[in-house]
Write a structure and sequence with these properties.
The chain has about 425 residues and is mainly α. It folds into 2 domains: about 5-165, no CATH class; about 180-380, no CATH class. Helices cover about 55% and strands about 0% of the residues. A hairpin with a 5-residue loop joins strand 1 and strand 2. Helix 2 packs across helix 4. The chain starts with a helix and ends in a 7-residue tail after the last helix. It comes from Amphibalanus amphitrite (Striped barnacle). InterPro entries: THO_THOC1 (IPR021861).
Length: about 425
């Protein structure tokens, strides 16, 4: 029905409309049901994508594939091919391209997010799109392809509605597989263990080749406590148990004391400000070698990441989460310690250059909004609906005839009043 020659050259600029016209003529001149014709064209488009990916000169495959994909979208809108065909072609293209080509072609996916959200495409394609993005993420390295991973996740956030339950982590599960291993003086893995009384075992002696770098004195107890805190950040619920809480309290106090005793100045982070305009941010999992601890404590970005982790954990421990068990509640003494330590962390962030005060206020605002997000999830993640404007009532004819003035319209509340009311009730409605 639709032979390979019918689609040859469709990837050339300016030939899409001509190709559609030729296919329309081909459809009308052939026998068979509409579903058979669509299936035949779906197959022809997939063959064309495979041919372009295999035969196109280096550097031109992405442009030619874009043209075939645009053709498939127009054919789907005219009901000449299946609504899922554009996404199937995208999946085939990503499978055939190297990572550099896949990253360039993904711009087509991002540019057409409004198309994928149209009714005819969304319901038919959402699962295929999600599967395609997950397949891409499995090919990528979180450390080497950080930007591309972020682009994919941002696209998914734009594509799916905010109330899509598959992306909400409704029951508040933690990624318990994200383990952080750290080594002892001989390079082996070491995990800080606590006795039943919450006391730690004695630390190993420092190696003879310990580095001599500027910073706080190298303390191997501090090193072990510092990286052991990552296990509490990974699984905050263990803080509700007596022995882990005692360990967390002790480790946090010692680590924050080390931060307080070694303050950074503007000159120590001046190299960061010089590079801000010339480099991209790079987010990686930090190395946990004990020989690097002094250098890491002298790094303002590293310090910020750790301090923000504390704030996120503190907020979770004190927040009413629907799926917490009855026993996962802090005592009054624990709440007092948490509030005092939280202020210490904010002070340390404000003292960390560059732009410490601005960064601290930004984090405070983000966590404040997180309270609204938590309330929304506790309410069952209801779908967001745009507010309906009240209909204006026409002035009664009797009032006009009698010369009576029309009733005054109710004055709209000021934004400041709305915010004060919400703050007093500790409840913010998303979209207010």
């Amino acid at each position: 029905m639709t032979e390979k020659s019918d689609l040859s050259g469709c990837e050339k600029d300016g030939d899409i409309e001509e190709t559609i016209f030729r296919l329309e003529a081909d459809f009308s001149g052939k026998e068979g049901g509409e579903s058979d014709k669509r299936a035949c064209l779906d197959h022809a488009l997939r063959r064309r994508v495979a041919s372009v990916a295999e035969e196109a000169p280096a550097g031109q495959a992405e442009r030619q594939l874009r043209a075939v994909l645009q053709l498939s979208v127009k054919l789907a809108r005219s009901d000449r091919c299946s609504p899922t065909t554009p996404i199937v072609l995208l999946s085939d293209s990503f499978d055939a391209l190297p990572l550099d080509g896949a990253q360039a072609l993904f711009a087509f996916v991002e540019d057409n997010v409004a198309t994928w959200k149209e009714e005819m495409f969304f319901n038919a394609c959402k699962n295929n799109l999600l599967r395609m993005c997950n397949d891409l993420l499995r090919r990528l390295s979180r450390s080497q392809n950080t930007v591309f991973c972020g682009r994919i996740l941002l696209f998914l956030a734009k594509f799916f509605p905010l109330s899509e339950r598959s992306g909400l982590n409704v029951i508040s599960e933690f990624n318990l597989d994200n383990l952080t291993a750290f080594g002892d003086g001989d390079g082996g893995e070491d995990v800080v263990e606590m006795t039943e009384d919450g006391e730690e075992p004695s630390a190993p002696a420092p190696p003879a080749d310990a580095p001599d770098v500027p910073g706080p004195p190298l303390d191997y107890n501090l090193y072990r406590k510092f990286w052991a805190l990552q296990d509490f950040f990974r699984n905050p619920n263990q803080c509700y148990s007596k022995v882990p809480w005692k360990a967390f309290n002790s480790y946090t106090t010692d680590v924050l004391a080390a931060f307080t005793g070694f303050k950074l100045d503007e000159s120590s982070s001046s190299h960061l400000s010089k590079l801000e305009s010339d480099t991209q941010e790079y987010f990686a999992k930090y190395l946990t070698s004990q020989k690097l601890l002094q250098l890491q404590l002298s790094d303002s970005m590293f310090r910020r990441f750790v301090l923000v982790q504390f704030l996120i954990l503190f907020q979770y421990l004190a927040s009413p989460v629907k799926f917490k068990s009855e026993g996962q509640v802090l005592t009054e003494a624990q709440q007092t310690w948490l509030q005092e330590t939280q202020q210490t962390v904010y002070s340390l962030i404000a003292e960390t250059p560059p732009h410490g005060k601005q960064f601290a206020e930004t984090i405070r605002t983000i966590l404040k909004r997180e309270e609204s997000w938590n309330t929304w999830k506790n309410d069952g993640c209801p779908a967001f609906k745009p507010p309906v404007a009240p209909e204006e009532k026409a002035e009664p004819a009797a009032d006009r005839a009698a010369g009576r003035p029309a009733p005054r319209r109710r004055q709209k509340r000021k934004v400041g009043d709305v915010l004060r009311t919400a703050e007093a009730k500790k409840k913010f409605l998303m979209g207010q």
